[in-house]
Write a structure and sequence with these properties.
Elements: E1 6-13, E2 18-22, E3 28-33, E4 39-46, E5 48-52, E6 57-65
Antiparallel strand pairs: 1-6, 2-5, 3-4, 3-6
């Protein structure tokens, strides 16, 4: 990922299921979006997450460079 570009990963999750994601690259971070398009609470600018979802649907993880490194 270079500059202000990003990559989205979309996946389906059912209520009470868990999902995990971990970034191992340097200078990258992620934002997790809920099915309604809003940011998941406390899931912006992070490199690792494990969460149990409250709402079924398609979630999105956006991987991007931090603004300071873009």
């Amino acid at each position: 990922i270079k500059g202000f570009r990003y990559v989205d990963y979309v996946f389906s999750v059912k209520t009470t299921q868990y999902f995990s994601a971990k970034l191992t690259g340097r200078k990258v971070q992620m934002v997790v979006f809920e099915p309604d398009g809003e940011n998941m609470p406390d899931a912006a600018g992070i490199t690792e997450i494990t969460s149990q979802v409250e709402t079924s649907g398609k979630y999105k993880i956006r991987v991007l460079m931090s603004r300071n490194d873009a």
